[in-house]
Amino acid sequence: LADFGIEEALRELGVKDINEGSSTGSDNFSNGEVIESYSPVDGKLIGKVKATTQADYDKIMDAATSAFKDWRTMPAPQRGEIVRQFGDKLREKKEALGKLVSYEMGKSYQEGLGEVQEMIDICDFAVGLSRQLHGLTMHSERPGHRMYEQYHPMGVVGIISAFNFPVAVWAWNTALAWVCGDVCVWKPSEKTPLCGVACQNIAAEVFKANGLPEGISNLINGDYKVGEMMTKDKRVPLISATGSTRMGKIVAQEVAGRLGKSLLELGGNNAIIVTPDADIKMTVIGAVFGAVGTAGQRCTSTRRLIIHESIYDKVKEAVVKAYGQLRIGNPLDENNHVGPIIDKDAVKMYQAALEKVVEEGGNIVVEGGVLSGEGYESGCYVKPAIAEAKNDFEIVQHETFAPVLYLIKYSGDVHDALELQNGVGQGLSSAIMTNNLREAEAFLSVQGSDCGIANVNIGTSGAEIGGAFGGEKDTGGGRESGSDAWKIYMRRQTNTINYTADLPLAQGIKFDL
Ligand code: UN1
């Protein structure tokens, strides 16, 4: 691995220091059981962190709540300046962090770099936003009164993120939360803890250089039990959680029970509708990248291709042919298209899905399987597979976080295709491939896609940060990243000011004393 510069990257990110017992960032605070991080790339131990105990958590919360008291009083554009510096640091460390993401999570180096680019982009977005956290002014119904609304910082934001985007999803949340005047406590996935440490180190460096407390950004480590410390904690008014629908339901109920807010980013079951008017070449590129990119482990990965019967065989043949060209192997080697999936449990779920689809009457058209032998020692490399299936198969209704693509045939018109597309529990991303304006507009219309993201002539994955990201139904309803997603990170206040010597009541009510 020396060739890929992993050792050097770990050193540059301060992750090496933890392995040598002298961690930098707030990882210092954790004293619980040891969590080991093994790379799915080669199965080797990358490093260890300690889980956060309840006592550690309470100390971290003290640091966070005390940092909030100062941070919230700093003018938002000045907070933006700190985020600008953080974005610059990310630019400096882009290669190292992209490499760590690739090595710890298993996505290709290009995608690792892409993920860091999303972090840089959201920082730039947040810097501009720091001068635009504005509310409306309204006309009061009473004479001599002024009415307006404003957004204030809210407090400690809890972030629970998943292994598949181990750094970017944190940045989407934290960059916005910071300019909004909030402080963050982050629990990265226990499958990618070192990415968390690397990010914390970068943030800590920026805060230190500006004489600011590190408590503006905090890291906690561990599994769901550590997440629960936050979901149950009244001092955390907002929990932003990314992961499975199962996890989201638990978080939502816990947080709602104490009337906190949650921003949920849960599973997808994303489809591309391929109509008779589709550009087949574009369809193949979009579908293959969507299904095998990040080894099928994006929330936005393409799970279903819903193809019109008149072009079904042609599309199937083209996609199968493209799968034949895929090179599976070390994701740090840029000649490979597909890296490993996250761990052996994920491999089992992938295998179970392929068995289940056959059991339910599906037909495998690109054979799956676990790779072994040289270069595949970690046991986490699987072959991207394709099965012909029916939309109502139980396994098709379920999100399998692996490169398994289902081909589904439709007859009739675009509305028939939409019925299949919308006929799943999840509602994250969707796409249509067509050069027919009527079909495209029907897809985007009120009777069209029911997803949070609906694309025309683009695949389901690879959303830009400028739009609000998230979905409906079992996807949880949250929106993060661009557009006005920042509003959930602030508390909103309506203010009415009377500048007269009279006290008229609203709604014309008379109350004479
Ligand atoms: C995720 O999979 O959790 O749209 C996020 C995309 C990426 C983000 C995915 N920009 O595919």
Keywords:
five-stranded parallel β-sheet; alpha/beta; globular; 21 strands; seven-stranded mixed β-sheet; 16 helices; Ald_DH_CS_GLU; EC 1.2.1.3; binds 2-aminohexanedioic acid; oxidoreductase; 513 residues; single chain
**Structural class given helices, strands, pairing?**
alpha/beta
**Mean residue pLDDT:** 96
Form type: globular
Count of runs of 4 or more consecutive helical residues: 16
Low-confidence stretches: 22-27
Give the tally of β-strands.
21
Describe the strand arrangement of the main beta sheet, using strand numbers.
12-13-14-11-10-16-17
What ions, cofactors and ligands are bound? 2-aminohexanedioic acid
Pfam families: Aldedh
Family: Belongs to the aldehyde dehydrogenase family.
GO molecular function: aldehyde dehydrogenase (NAD+) activity
Active site: 265
What does this structure look like?
- The termini are far apart.
- This protein has helices at residues 6-12, 15-19, 54-71, 76-92, 94-105, 109-129, 168-179, 193-209, 224-231, 245-257, 280-292, 312-324, 344-359, 394-397, 414-422, 437-444; strands at residues 34-38, 45-50, 137-138, 145-153, 156-160, 183-187, 217-219, 238-242, 261-265, 270-274, 302-308, 363-366, 385-388, 404-410, 426-427, 429-433, 453-456, 468-469, 472-473, 480-481, 490-498.
- A 7-stranded mixed sheet has the order 12-13-14-11-10-16-17, with helices on both faces.
- Strand 16, helix 16 (437-444) and strand 17 (453-456) form a beta-alpha-beta unit.
- It contains 16 helices and 21 strands.
- Residues 22-27 have low confidence and may be disordered.
- Bound molecules: 2-aminohexanedioic acid.
- 2-aminohexanedioic acid (UN1) binds next to loops.
- Its EC number is 1.2.1.3.
- It is an enzyme of class 1 (oxidoreductase).
- This is aldehyde dehydrogenase (NAD(+)).
- Belongs to the aldehyde dehydrogenase family.
